[in-house]
């Protein structure tokens, strides 16, 4: 007979299998997480995304240089490969991370200076090295960097340099901050607008619904980018970078709330006549309480999923706006601003590494899409 | 059906008015007006400001009038005389500038739409029917990447490959020797040889989205009882598939016209800039940067109106194809 610890069902109605009991007692958040974990790509996306936001949080510490640091001696210096092992005087292989230095080459005809990797020079690297000062988390003064050259004056360009000798690797890391938060703030604004208008539209119905739906359709029928560009071009040129940053997020949110409003409205309409809502209303709950305690919580997970899925659009939009020169402007560093340098095919041909910020964009957008997909699947209990 | 079309056309009118107001607001947003910009430009260049010209312009746009009168002057010029105003950067009527570039924009947009359909249809169909096969995974992965890569990146990478490995420039729509040449068969072939680059670049995201939509819709339909019933009756799988679920799942293809046109027009601005295409996108971008506001506002207006008309056509097609749409919304 069975020798498992499952005891005989006595018919008292208690769940005796401990695994079943764990399922039955699990709060919705645990069930949600279990469903989410089944979507492997979503889990990978979540890991990558957490990593990206961690980088954004600790940008000053992780980047070897500050975003405004540059050295014109190393214009368009190519990327240096990392080497971990070196041979010491006794011909033993030892762990000594380093990169090779640069040699200058001057074209005898055009006097054009190009940098080539010179294996003769070795630039030793170290962990937790002293470098330029920065503010950790925005307020703690610090000058220790995760890694970098032992001598801060030596050239260290992991992903190459741009036309003024900025370190592209450091700048992509600093750009993470702006690029990844533009989406968050924009989505927060779009969320406020979308939930309010979509909720009103779906809950009250009738004329209010028709009017709001027409407004939504109107916004959806305008080609977004021309409108964004029009609004961005109209921003006063004397605004400081921070004002511009917030203005751009507002402009992005103006177009993004429509999708959310539609989702919220659809949910409100389908839930409005469910038994538990009718019960809540008949119990004499105020309208506010019905909306915020009964209606909204029942589709929070759907909202989170659609919010996650609308961030990538904002990141791509910011990138496109800044790429065209109408979004954020230097000295603010975002991935789109960095890509401005790569507009010209001649520049791209001389320094193809200038396209690398786009890899960061693709990575962020892909992980957000995967996470959003996983959330949406986990939020849908009727999916097989 | 006629009532449905009439109702949709009537709904278009408030939308068009709202669009024209938005376009006008965009024109008005930058500080100063059209004339201060013109005068500043002329003075900067050391040119003299022709008082007669200023007077004519002031009268034409009624710049001393209240704002709603100005709007009315602008919009009645467009509706009654087809006069969109003057581009001060080009010193030519906006109408002429836009009309020179609009046909090429339409050609690229319609071509892209067509290619998007032709590519997305078989892949989406295959992906749904053979769910979780190797082909499905490949299609899904490519779809996701297609949505995640900014389209100007695809353009830049294609240009880089063309430049680095084939030693040719893939920008523009004509080879240098054909740019100013009159239309001939050779020029047409040359156009076709250039056209595929912007079409691929512009179509990537739309194709990816459409594959995912068709796959999801078809998967929903494939599990419905009528499919089981058809199978039980012994209808061959292939015939059944084409006859029932596919027809229902095809709706998004028709409604694509509605959302893909705004997307293509938006894409054209960035891609047109990178690939230097003779389309309205780069014209709009330059107009916005130099604050040539009448040109910019007019392009936004024209492009938005075309999109609304595209949406109308797709709605009518959808209603014609699917009685549920027609009956629900009248």
Outline the biggest β-sheet of chain A.
4 strands, antiparallel
Count of strand segments of chain A: 4
Counting DSSP H or I runs of 4 or more residues, the number of helices of chain B is 15
CATH-defined fold name of the largest domain in chain A: MetI-like fold
Number of domains of chain A: 2
Q: What is the CATH class of chain B?
A: Mainly Alpha
Subcellular location (chain B): Cell membrane
Transmembrane segments (chain B): 9-29, 104-125, 137-163, 193-214, 248-275, 295-321
Keywords (chain B): Cell membrane, Membrane, Transmembrane, Transmembrane helix, Transport
Domain ABC transmembrane type-1 (chain B): 102-318
Word description of this protein:
The complex is a heterodimer of chains A (384) and B (330). Chain A contains 14 helices and four strands. Chain A has helices at residues 18-25, 28-37, 40-57, 59-62, 168-204, 206-221, 224-233, 241-272, 275-282, 287-295, 300-323, 335-339, 345-350, 356-379, and strands at residues 83-87, 93-106, 113-136, 140-149. In chain A, strands 1-2-3-4 form a four-stranded antiparallel sheet. In chain A, helix 3 (40-57) packs across helix 5 (168-204) and helix 5 (168-204) packs parallel to helix 14 (356-379). Chain A is globular and about 85 Å long. Chain B is mainly alpha-helical and 330 residues long. Chain B has one domain (94-329): MetI-like fold, CATH 1.10.3720. Chain B has a two-stranded antiparallel sheet. At the A-B interface, helix 6, helix 7, helix 11, helix 13 and helix 14 of A face helix 1, helix 6, helix 7, helix 12 and helix 13 of B.
């Amino acid at each position: 007979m069975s020798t498992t610890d499952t005891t005989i069902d006595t018919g008292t109605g208690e769940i005796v299998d401990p695994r079943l009991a764990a399922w039955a007692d699990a709060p919705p958040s645990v069930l949600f997480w279990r469903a989410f974990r089944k979507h492997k790509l979503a889990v990978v996306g979540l890991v990558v995304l957490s990593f990206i936001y961690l980088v954004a949080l600790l940008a000053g510490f992780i980047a070897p240089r500050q975003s405004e640091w540059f050295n014109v001696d190393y214009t368009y210096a190519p990327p240096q490969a990392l080497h971990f092992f070196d041979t010491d005087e006794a011909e033993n292989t030892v762990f000594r991370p380093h990169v090779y230095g640069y040699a200058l080459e001057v074209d005898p005809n055009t006097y054009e200076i190009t940098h080539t990797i010179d294996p003769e020079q070795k630039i030793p690297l170290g962990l937790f090295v002293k470098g330029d000062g920065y503010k950790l988390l925005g307020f703690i003064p610090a000058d220790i960097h995760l890694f970098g050259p032992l001598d801060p004056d030596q050239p260290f360009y992991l992903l190459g340099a741009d036309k003024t000798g900025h370190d592209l690797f450091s700048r992509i890391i600093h750009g993470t901050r702006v690029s990844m938060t533009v989406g968050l703030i924009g989505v927060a604004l779009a969320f406020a607008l979308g939930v309010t208008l979509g909720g009103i539209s779906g809950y009250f119905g009738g004329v209010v619904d028709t009017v709001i739906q027409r407004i939504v359709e109107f916004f959806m029928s305008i080609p977004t980018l021309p409108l964004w560009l029009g609004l961005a071009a109209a921003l006063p040129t004397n605004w400081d970078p921070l004002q511009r940053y917030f203005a751009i997020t507002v402009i992005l949110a103006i177009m993004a709330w429509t999708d959310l409003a539609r989702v919220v409205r659809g949910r409100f309409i389908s839930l409005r006549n469910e038994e538990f809502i009718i019960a809540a209303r008949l119990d004499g709950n105020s309208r506010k309480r019905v909306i915020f305690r009964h209606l909204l919580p029942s589709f929070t997970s759907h909202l989170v999923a659609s919010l996650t899925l609308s961030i990538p659009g904002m990141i791509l939009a910011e990138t496109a706006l800044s790429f065209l020169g109408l979004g954020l402007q230097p000295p603010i560093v975002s991935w789109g601003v960095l890509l401005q340098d790569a507009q010209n095919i001649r520049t791209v041909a001389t320094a193809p590494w200038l396209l690398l910020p786009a890899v960061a964009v693709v990575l962020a957008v892909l992980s957000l899409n995967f996470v959003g997909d996983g959330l949406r699947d986990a939020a849908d209990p009727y999916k097989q | 059906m006629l009532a449905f079309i009439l109702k949709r056309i009537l709904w278009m009118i408030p939308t068009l008015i709202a669009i024209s107001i938005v376009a006008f607001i965009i024109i008005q947003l930058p500080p100063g007006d059209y004339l201060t910009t013109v005068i500043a430009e002329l003075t900067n260049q050391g040119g003299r400001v022709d008082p007669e010209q200023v007077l004519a312009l002031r009268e034409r746009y009624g710049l001393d009038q209240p704002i709603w009168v100005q709007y009315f002057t602008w919009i009645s010029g467009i509706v009654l005389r087809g006069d969109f105003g003057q581009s001060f950067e080009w010193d030519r009527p906006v109408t002429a500038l836009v009309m020179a570039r609009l046909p090429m924009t339409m050609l690229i947009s319609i071509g892209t739409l067509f290619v998007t359909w032709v590519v997305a249809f078989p892949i989406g169909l295959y992906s749904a029917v053979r769910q979780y096969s190797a082909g499905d995974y490949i299609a899904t992965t490519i779809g996701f990447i297609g949505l995640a890569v900014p389209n100007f990146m695809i353009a830049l990478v294609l240009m880089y490959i063309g430049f680095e490995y084939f030693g040719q420039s893939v920008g523009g729509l004509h080879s240098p020797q054909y740019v100013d040449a009159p239309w001939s068969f050779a020029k047409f072939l040359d156009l076709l040889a250039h056209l595929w680059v912007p079409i691929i670049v512009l179509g990537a995201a739309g194709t990816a989205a459409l594959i995912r939509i068709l796959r999801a819709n078809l998967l929903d339909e494939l599990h419905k009882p009528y499919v089981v019933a058809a199978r039980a009756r012994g209808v061959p799988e292939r015939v059944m598939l084409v006859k029932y679920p596919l027809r229902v799942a095809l709706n998004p293809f028709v409604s694509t016209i509605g959302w893909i046109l705004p997307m293509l027009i938006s894409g054209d601005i960035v891609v047109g800039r990178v690939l230097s295409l003779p389309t309205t996108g780069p014209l709009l971008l330059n107009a916005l940067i130099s604050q040539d506001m009448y040109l910019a506002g007019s392009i936004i207006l024209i492009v938005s109106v075309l999109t609304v008309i595209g949406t109308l056509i797709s709605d009518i097609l959808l209603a014609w194809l699917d009685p549920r749409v027609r009956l629900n919304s009248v």
